[in-house]
Write a structure and sequence with these properties.
The protein is α/β, with parallel strands linked by helices. The protein has 16 helices and 17 strands. Helix 7 packs parallel to helix 8 and helix 10 packs parallel to helix 13. The model has no long low-confidence stretch (mean pLDDT 91).
């Protein structure tokens, strides 16, 4: 009996000797008001701005307002189970999201939680959603093209890696279509794509994901989703989360592309959050820092210099206008932050000119720095020819007696317009673009009927890809129209033209 007693005493002594007192400090507060996705909390005196807060029921929030006697926080997710008096914990962490290869090919929410049923995401690292943009010294001039696969954009409004190019237009004018075509065209280009859907219909997002899957683009794409039924707080952080995920690849010396669809809805969700937090409203009831909301996001897009890895983050924000008014508050804000805009016009869209680019109002401030020499040479006169055609077409409606030069310009303009039309989900390699644009600009299609131009283009690409493989490979490698290459190109187009004309007599 005594041996058992001795054994118990001995084991208790060992436990007491090995006891180490651990003190865990938790900073907690209490909800004093909750509703509409917003909570006011008292007692969190050491809380920092943008700090993550833990609410009951495994719900997270972010501190936005640091008032004298309370903290105003947005709740990220469902909030109906929260009530006055509930305990809120400070986490000491700034809001962060998982980044790395683990998120590629997935459909996730802005907090990195999976929405595609393919299991949990274990990020290699976590990045804060808010980050200071790279400074001027660490950047490099934009000089590498990011091909969209769309003839009208790659020739006249070129986009470079590290650029911020705004896509702007009324609803249903093909803004998202341009963005999705750009993603599809990045196949085998070593560009990681991030599509951020902000407050979109779930049916639209499902269609986009299905299309990307079908075309093999999900292998290098992440879709970050907030649907129209999600709280405004999630829509507010979505673009920053997408940007952080893209920044990881930029920091690793790789190229990334982020599409924000669209920042009009983002501004509206931020206005909702700000008004609920009782921040003073300004113009159109937007808060005073609405410009900073988008500038701190878009300035994070950059082309880094070689010393800092040489990676790039390209941003394609989308803005929806009302009745083509690009001088409204949010459109002018974003236009002044970006390096150019692609303006899509409803009237052109309904005429069947798609993509419905308004060449007069669209511009790329990086310009031809992000174009190959061959494309520069071909596209040099294209914009002028098209602008002159639009002007003459309006004038020619009122008079029938036109001189020969004017008639020639009108005829060529019709063919250029026809060639620049492009169906959705059919991005074109840049060498094929150069070939067809060269043919139309040099007047080699002038003697073909306008309605035969699309058929001629399809046939020409097939002919060159099958019969002139070595020539196309040389054009792709050199990316320059040397006198020999130009002569070879002219000869190849003339050869196919004879075949085409004999078939279509």
């Amino acid at each position: 009996m005594s041996t058992t007693k001795d054994y118990v005493i001995e084991s208790l002594k060992k436990q007491i000797a090995g006891f180490r007192e651990s003190v865990k400090v938790e900073k907690v507060g209490q909800i004093i008001e909750v509703g509409d996705g917003i909570a006011r909390i008292s007692g969190l005196s050491e809380c920092r701005s943008s700090e993550m807060l833990e609410f009951p029921g495994n719900t997270m929030g972010v501190a936005l307002n640091l008032d004298e006697d309370s903290v105003g926080a947005i709740i990220l997710g469902e909030y109906n189970h929260l009530k006055e008096g509930d305990t809120v914990k400070s986490t000491g962490r700034i809001l962060e999201v998982p980044v790395g290869k683990a998120v590629i090919g997935r459909v996730i929410d802005p907090l990195g939680r999976p929405l595609d049923g393919k299991g949990e995401i274990r990020g290699e690292k976590y990045y804060p959603v808010e980050k200071i943009a790279p400074g001027v010294v660490t950047r490099q001039a934009v000089n590498t093209p990011l091909q969209t696969g769309l003839k009208a954009i790659d020739s006249m409004i070129p986009i470079g890696r590290g650029q911020r190019e705004l896509i702007i237009g009324d609803r249903q004018t093909g803004k998202t279509a341009i963005a999705i075509d750009t993603i599809i065209n990045q196949q085998n280009q070593n560009v990681f794509c991030f599509y951020v859907a902000i407050g979109q219909k779930e049916s639209k997002i499902a269609r986009i994901v299905a299309e990307l899957e079908k075309r093999g683009a999900m292998k290098y794409t992440t879709v970050i989703v907030t649907s129209a039924s999600d709280p405004a707080s999630l829509s507010y952080i979505a673009p920053y989360a997408g940007c952080a995920m893209g920044e990881y690849f930029m920091d690793a010396g790789k190229d990334a592309l982020v599409i924000y669809d669209d920042l009009s809805k983002h501004a509206v969700s931020y206005r909702q959050v700000s008004l609920l937090l009782r921040r003073p409203p300004g113009r159109e009831a937007f808060p005073g820092d609405i410009f900073y909301l988008h500038s701190r996001l878009l300035e994070r897009a950059a082309k880094m210099d070689k010393k800092h890895g040489g990676g790039s983050l390209t941003a394609l924000p989308i803005i929806e206008t009302q009745a083509g008014d690009i001088s409204a508050y949010i459109p002018t804000n974003v236009i002044s932050i970006t390096d150019g805009q692609i303006f899509l016009e409803g009237d052109l869209f309904y005429q069947g000119i798609r993509p419905a680019l308004n060449i007069g109002l669209s511009v790329s401030r990086v310009g031809s720095a992000a174009q190959s020499k061959a494309m520069k040479k071909v596209a040099g006169s294209l914009r002028l020819d098209l602008a002159q055609y639009r002007e003459l077409a309006a004038f020619a409606q009122f008079g029938s007696d036109l001189d020969e030069t004017t008639q020639q310009r009108l005829e060529r303009g019709k063919r250029i317009t026809e060639i620049l039309k492009q169906p959705q989900y059919v991005p074109l390699p840049v060498t094929n673009q150069i070939v067809i644009l060269y043919a139309v600009v040099k007047g080699m299609l002038d003697d073909l009927p306008v309605e035969q131009a699309p058929a001629f283009e399809i046939g020409l690409h097939q002919y060159l890809d099958t019969q002139k493989e070595s020539f196309m490979a040389e054009l792709k490698t050199k990316a320059e129209l040397t006198p020999e290459i130009e002569a070879g190109l002219k000869e190849a187009i003339e050869e196919y033209k004879k075949v085409f004309q004999s078939e279509n007599k």
